[in-house]
Amino acid sequence: MNKSEQALELFSQGFNCAQAILSVFCDEFDLKREAALKMTSGFGGGLCQGELCGAVSSAVMVLGLKYGQSEKEDNEAKENTYDVVNDFCRKFKAINGSIICNGLLDTDLSQTNARKEAREKGLFKKICPKVIADAVVILEEMI
After folding, report:
1. What is residue 107's predicted lDDT score, i.e. its pLDDT?
2. Mean of the pLDDT values across residues 113-123?
3. Burial of 34 (0-12, 13-18, 19+ CB in 10 A)
4. pLDDT of residue 130
5. Could you please report the per-residue DSSP string of 72-112?
6. What phi, psi does 52 have (nearest 5°)?
7. Contacts of 78 (CB under 8 A, 6+ apart)
8. Per-residue model confidence (pLDDT) at position 94
9. Which of 41, 77, 78, 138 is most buried, by CB atoms within 10 Å?
10. Any idea which of 12-21, 23-32, 51-60, 112-121 has the lowest mean pLDDT?
11. Tens digits of residue pLDDT in 52-87
């Protein structure tokens, strides 16, 4: 099973988009899966508010693990990370039209009962799997 399929399997099991993305890259970065799942549990649904898509949030985490700055003097890594994150976002937007969850789902998840209504309309099942798969494919190309 490839990483996209693994991420989609996790999503179908009830994990959110952010959890699905980061957890399939754990082995490459010596990150504990349980920690990744817990760390990203509040990122689904665009920080539960319809803001930055959870799949994008976790993709940025993966890019940070690959390219990120870990020494204060390493400004080259810092700038490179910004460049690859911008590149990822540009590619993701070109495919999906937005990096914002509300824009992707065409709803406002910050409103009362909006998440429940989005579930009832099947928005997460209809839209999120494609977004997750797209994020994984772009990541695999970039790392």
Report:
1. 92
2. 92
3. exposed
4. 98
5. TT-HHHHHHHHHHHHHHHHHHHHHHS-SBHHHHHTS-TTST
6. -55, 125
7. 69
8. 98
9. 138
10. 112-121
11. 999 999 999 999 999 999 999 999 999 999 999 999
CA-angle at 64, arms to 55 and 25, nearest 5°: 55
Locus of tokens 């699905």:
20
Q: Which tokens in the block code for residue 34?
A: 């349980």
List CB contacts of 55: < 8 A, sequence separation 6 or more.
17, 18, 20, 21, 128, 131, 132, 134, 135
Q: What tokens does 90 get?
A: 């540009």
> Side-chain half-sphere of 26: how many Cα atoms within 13 Å?
18
Across-strand partners of 100? Answer: 52
Hey, what amino acid is at 76?
E
Tokens coding 103: 């824009």
Cα distance from N-terminal residue to C-terminal residue, the chain:
19
40: which 2 tokens?
A: 């990203």
Q: What angle do CA 40, 41, 43 make, to 5 degrees?
A: 65
